[in-house]
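Board work, copied verbatim: Replication initiation protein
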Amino acid sequence: MNKHSFSQKCHNLIERLNRLDFVDPFSAEYYKEMKAIEFEMSILDKAERTPNTAITKPTFLEVPANISDEDLTFTLHSLTERYAANAKSADDFETMIYSNINNYDFKAMKIKVKAQVDFLDLYFEIGKASTRHDIKKYLTEKTGVTHYISEHGNGFIIRLHDINSMHQLQRRIQFLDHFNCHTDSFQVVEMELAVDFYQFKHRALATALFKSIRLPSSTNNFRVFKSKLGEFTAIPNNPLAMISKLNQDYNIGINHKNSDEYWHLYIKTTDHNKQSLPQVDWRIRAEKNIKLNVLTQMDNRLLNMRQVLNEGFKGLSFTQLKETAPLDMKAKYKDSVNPFGQEQEIYYDKSRHKRTLPEHIEKNTALNQLISNAVQNLLRNFTISQK
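↓ predict structure ↓
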């Protein structure tokens, strides 16, 4: 590359960097242009020697007409560093904003909320002498799906993934008639329910949901985890540390996984078989796992499926900080990562009303209504009369 061509390319990059002053640093255009400039910089670096380290970094970035190629390259690096620092500050600022549920208008932001059944564990009994291997083999032949089946008491438990209508459920379990299944024996013995947030703007929504999810006072074991069992990592204490974990595909867990109730928040990018999802299907997921001890209190028979689901989804609701909260509380809510929606023992507020939510925390009516609408849309698919 000749010197005239090199100098012209550097001047062009400087002009492009200067134009970024007039671009929203939170916009996709800003980051796209920064990446393009950095790429072209790497090409120029290969074409020119590393600049002389003796050159003093200017306080103000001025480019005289007769600047040398070495000085021009160094000036361009200085500008790039400045804009990279600005981009980092903008990214951190954006993370702080999206880590606070009070900054969300889900409708205006076009974030789609959907309620789903991640899996159901159904207990059933049969009249035909058979093993779980017999049942598993037969179901695989008939459905093309490999099912997890275990023995339990006088019967078996089958795990069914992504069952979001009674029609889908009946299509799966109809093949159990081959084994003289006792239809009145069906009971839900474990289930995992999910509220998904599609078209999310930032992974920090997972942080915002953790800070605002409504939890019983008995919940504990707040942690982030990845894959190693038995390894406890406490929740990071600020949103920037938390987004670092989320960007490394860490999950948020609440209560022990084997507890009667267990909550799980994460960015879902794969299906239950660990196969990658198309990016359009990526979402922030808030899950609640409910086990037998809780389900039996709901009348967990299959014929009561609709009511079981309705009760289960009540454990996925959210709170927010009151507008009237004092400044120190607003600062704490913004700058830290805590389960602010965890209930307390019943107490009386200043108006002598009974409360369980902490002072300055209230129900997030707008978000809870969106979730309720999504749940009702799902429940319409679970009428026992469907064929």
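DSSP finds eleven helices and 13 strands in the chain.
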